Design the sequence.
């Protein structure tokens, strides 16, 4: 088999492994309704200081003088997700922040009032994204069937707990090699692809065919000079893409060292600082990607725009059945193995960015953070090498919940306590992602992106990811030190990967024949 064939065969596996399911919140939960005047007078319970802070934090993301219906609905949904109830104190806090309650109710009326005005579908939710580009927006089926996918859902206690528990199961039952496995799409992910997949009306977002089809259409409609921009960027970044994967490995090595240690020793500040460093590198790659995407968008012809406009964001069924992988070029000698992976990624993410919104860019699934524990391997290894395989959307929640049931009350508390401990960091993660996404989108509009700002925000994003990952690693290690033989046997059964053996390490989803020579990890331990 020649080198190109090997690359393309590997590509069908590597890029396909971006098909990761997001754990869903219970779709049966009632939708948040805007507080009516009579309701505000019924609940006289004062807000706590923490609740007041939550209200202000939610409202701080919006301009009261330029509020849209989607934003008003998002505000009410955010209040519901954190358990804030309507009442005089709530109303006063909202007014003090400069918001008009009557305007909020008018923009996002209760569902029964909407139907009375001739609206037959449910009110739009934050997960649906703003209705700014109807020609490239979500289909009606997508809006109605996939509204549960939202940032509020991603950081909800339920989604976070089950995802963290799933990672704990994977980490305790896995090994270093499995922990290094991660899809390429989980880095440089400010371009809306994750959201487009999760809301797909055809429910094909978690199938390898999804990426191949959207990328195939983009590559089909672009001309040679436009594709050349992607090719040049892939040549530039393929090796850097590989370096980014390698930068994660000392951290993963340290986490496994903590798991096996008889006493805790992992240093929080050192971990936070180290993750900040390679997230800044991730931001650098994202900045360059946005630059090139902006150039391609600016060069689109009217005919190309019409073609892309017919491809609905989040509706696989509207995309012609094209797959351009047979036209992939042999990379130049010495070019990284990730040339074609990067090239296909650019094609797919260009469409999700061009056709999407900033809300789609900011969105992430619950498993986006703390990606160092082998959850991706445990979940997706059965899909490796399969062209048409739908990864279950329930495996994370079911396995995470069952893992928690195997623990004693004390062991379980080590995991469940993380939810409250990470709450502040998760809120800042959303704000940071939004700031990065807004800055990068300037390129799509023909503006200049502030590189220094993007890198600084990327570093802060990494520090937050490092902080929550330290929480996970130390909690998993604490549980591991107290497990009985019976618990370990039950966890291995729950892992459900009999017959699978991980490679010594993975560069994203590509197996390595041997683990790389990594530096000593003492710098991540002890008192600094």
Sequence:
């Amino acid at each position: 088999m020649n080198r190109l064939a090997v690359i393309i065969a590997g590509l069908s596996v590597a890029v396909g492994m971006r098909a990761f399911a997001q754990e869903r919140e219970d779709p049966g939960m009632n939708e948040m309704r805007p507080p009516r005047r009579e309701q505000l007078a019924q609940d006289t319970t004062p807000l706590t200081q923490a609740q007041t802070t939550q209200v202000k934090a939610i409202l701080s993301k919006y301009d009261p003088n330029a509020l849209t219906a989607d934003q008003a609905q998002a505000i009410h949904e955010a209040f519901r997700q954190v358990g804030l109830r309507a009442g005089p104190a709530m109303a006063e806090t909202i007014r003090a922040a400069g918001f008009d309650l009557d305007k909020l109710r008018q923009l996002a009326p209760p569902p029964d009032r909407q139907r009375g005005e001739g609206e037959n579908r449910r009110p739009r939710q934050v997960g649906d994204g703003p209705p700014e580009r109807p020609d490239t927006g979500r289909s009606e089926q997508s809006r109605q069937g996939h509204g549960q996918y939202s940032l509020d859902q991603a950081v909800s206690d339920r989604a976070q707990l089950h995802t963290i528990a799933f990672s704990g199961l994977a980490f305790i039952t896995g090994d270093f090699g499995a922990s290094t496995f991660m899809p390429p799409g989980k880095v440089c992910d400010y371009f809306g692809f994750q959201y487009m997949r999760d809301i797909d009306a055809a429910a094909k977002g978690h199938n390898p065919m999804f990426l191949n089809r959207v990328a195939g259409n983009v590559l089909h409609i672009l001309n040679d000079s436009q594709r050349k921009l992607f090719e040049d960027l892939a040549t530039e970044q393929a090796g850097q893409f590989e370096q980014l994967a390698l930068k994660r490995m000392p951290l993963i090595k340290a986490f496994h060292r903590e798991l096996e240690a008889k006493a805790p020793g992992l240093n929080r500040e050192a971990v936070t600082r180290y993750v900040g460093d390679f997230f800044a590198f991730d931001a650098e790659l994202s900045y360059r990607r946005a630059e090139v995407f902006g150039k391609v968008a600016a060069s689109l012809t009217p005919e190309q725009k019409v073609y892309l406009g017919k491809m609905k964001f989040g509706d696989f069924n509207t995309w012609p059945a094209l797959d351009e992988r047979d036209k992939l070029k042999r990379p130049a000698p010495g070019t990284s193995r990730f040339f074609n992976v990067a090239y296909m990624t650019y094609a797919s993410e260009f469409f999700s960015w061009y056709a999407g919104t900033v809300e789609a860019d900011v969105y992430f699934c619950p498993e986006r953070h703390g990606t160092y524990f082998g959850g991706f391997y445990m979940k997706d290894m059965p899909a490796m090498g399969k062209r048409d395989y739908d990864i279950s959307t329930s495996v994370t929640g079911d396995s995470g919940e069952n893992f928690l049931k195997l623990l004693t009350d004390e062991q379980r508390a080590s995991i469940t306590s993380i939810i409250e401990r990470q709450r502040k960091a998760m809120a800042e993660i959303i704000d940071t992602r939004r700031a990065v996404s807004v800055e990068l989108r300037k390129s799509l509009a023909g503006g200049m992106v502030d590189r220094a700002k993007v890198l600084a925000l990327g570093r802060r994003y990494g520090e937050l990811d490092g902080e929550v990952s330290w929480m996970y690693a130390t909690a998993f290690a604490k549980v591991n030190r107290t497990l009985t033989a019976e618990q370990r046997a039950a966890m291995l059964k729950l892992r459900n990967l009999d017959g699978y053996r991980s490679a010594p390490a993975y560069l994203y989803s590509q197996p390595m024949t041997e683990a790389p020579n990594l530096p000593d990890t003492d710098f991540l331990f002890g008192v600094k």
Residues 273 and 463 are 6 Å apart (CA to CA).
